Amino acid sequence: MKKIIAVLMSLVIIAGISVPAFAAEKECDCGFNPVIYVAALGSATVYENPGTENEKALFRPDTMPLVEEAVSVILPVIPALIAGDFDTFGDALIGFINSAFGALALDGDGNSRENVYAPEEYPVSGDHGIEHSYYFGYDFRLDPYEHADRLYKDIQTLKELTGHSKVQLKASSMGGVVTMAYLEKYGTEDIETVIFQNCPIKGTAVAGELFCRKFEINKDALLNYALDAIPSLEQDFLQGFLYGLATALDDVGVWSLLLSMADVIVENLLDRVYDEALIPIFGTLPGIWSFVPDEYYEEAKTVMVDESTQAGLIRKLDNYHYNVQKRAEDILNEANKDVKIYIVAGYDIQRTPLVTAYMNTSDGTVDTKYASVGAVTADIRDTLPEGYTQAIDDGHDHISPDFMIDASTCALPEQTWFIKDMLHCTTHDGHGKFYELMLTGEEQFYVDTYEEYPQFMQNNIPDMTFDKVENLSATEKFKKQPNFTNFVMMLRFFIDTVKSFFAGLFVK
Ligand SMILES: [Zn+2]
Q1: pLDDT, tens digit, for every residue of 23-40?
Q2: Rounded mean pLDDT of the chain?
Q3: Centroid of ligand 1 to alpha carbon of 191 (angstroms)
């Protein structure tokens, strides 16, 4: 027995000596630890039968075949819908959803069908530098811990390929979920920096509400959602046209009419769509479950999963939820002792309108309070209640100049930035420079380190910079809107001004 131990000991010693010696031989002295971009949902395409003649992209699907299929299936049953025959229409709709997405569903243990997966890529080159980051994509359906395991392996490979002992992680959206699972399981030994860009670290209300069947179509939210997205379109003419059209249709009541029709459809079909499509497909995906915030989580489980057939799946869901999402503040504070951490959240953009939480300020997808890990936020387009004072007095001012956000309650209040009018993961050179500072700086910097990067910043898309957040009048705010010089945006301003003028008249 002693002999075995001695042999083992010497093996351990040899391994302990030889590994660093080997690594030291090709150590890189460039001074910049390699960056891994932990990408967002949809970062790797999930295929059915990949590499065969029956290969089909399930997510994201090719748009045109999907639209063609939808049209060919849905169009013929429109007359049935108009005649109030919801069963016939429901059969077609549910059939379409299942044929398009059904193969994505996981089994009762949260595992995929063998013929459905996202082909994996591994680091093969040691190229690194600010222009050369390594892209980490993954199958969005699976347990974030599975991706954390692969991320760990890739980090080891990358360390060997580059001759650096640490890497830097830049996580975008769902990439933050994977990164949090990684930090929980593997700690910070291999990490120098973590950037979280618009990440649902504490979830996103749209997932929580949809998984609790809290489905609601709100006209104003839907309209504002569409209008907020218009500036990100690339064609100027289309922007103005869509804006004009959308607001004009609103003024004459078309949206209200369409939505009241939609309400009738929802009322008659919602249960079937949930039971026959949403629950059996999306309710089985731990990746989507990782977005469900804590205040919805247990209720969502009663709606979406079944203990008797999905015990293995539920173990995976609980494992992520209770060990990562619910403990996010602890994980971040623990990691913060050893690594540089930067959290970026967007705000004042209309969030997904199909749920009752449409008043939450957000980047359009992730609620600001969840991405910032704990900020107190006013409702969209509103301010904090009159007389509100900063929740935690830490000697710094953490209330935004527009009185919409209190950052003092964040997990890392000195390391969390808020960019007004930043649409989810939509960046420009200004973001690039900001992130570069995070990745190249030796030391952690804070919200009071650089005058040009205060805690609250106004996204300035035309100039690709950030401005100071101010309480602006309509005219002043308009000047900061994208494409100010553009004629069609003048039209947008004109419509807004006329509308608010008349609104003001009627109120008085
Ligand atoms: Zn290097």
Answers
A1: 444 799 999 999 999 999
A2: 86
A3: 14
For residue 16, report the distance from its CA to the centre of ligand 1, in Å: 23
- State in Å, rounded, how far the first CA of the chain is from the last one: 93
**Residue 96 located in a structural domain:** no
The domain tally of the chain equals 2
d(CA 129, ligand 1 centre) in Å? 7
Query: Domain for residue 37, yes or no?
Result: yes
Q: 403 and 272, same structural domain?
A: yes
Question: For residue 461, what pLDDT band results from cuts at 50, 70 and 90?
Answer: confident
CA 502–ligand 1 middle distance (angstroms) = 61
CA of 190 to the centre of ligand 1 (A): 15
Same domain, yes or no: 437 and 459:
yes
Q: Looking at the DSSP assignment, which residues form a beta bridge with residue 52?
A: none
Residue 150 CA, ligand 1 centroid: distance in Å = 22
State both tokens at 80.
Answer: 């049935």
Instruction: Find the domain containing 501 and state its range.
Output: 477-507
Please tell me the pTM assigned to this model.
0.84
- The highest-confidence range among 49-58, 85-94, 300-309, by mean pLDDT, is 300-309
In a domain, 405, yes or no: yes
List the one residue out of 275, 274, 272, 288 whose CA is nearest residue 104. Answer: 288
CA of 434 to the centre of ligand 1 (A): 21
Residue 300 banded pLDDT, cuts 50, 70, 90: very high
Query: Which residues are paired to 346 by β-bridges?
Result: 419
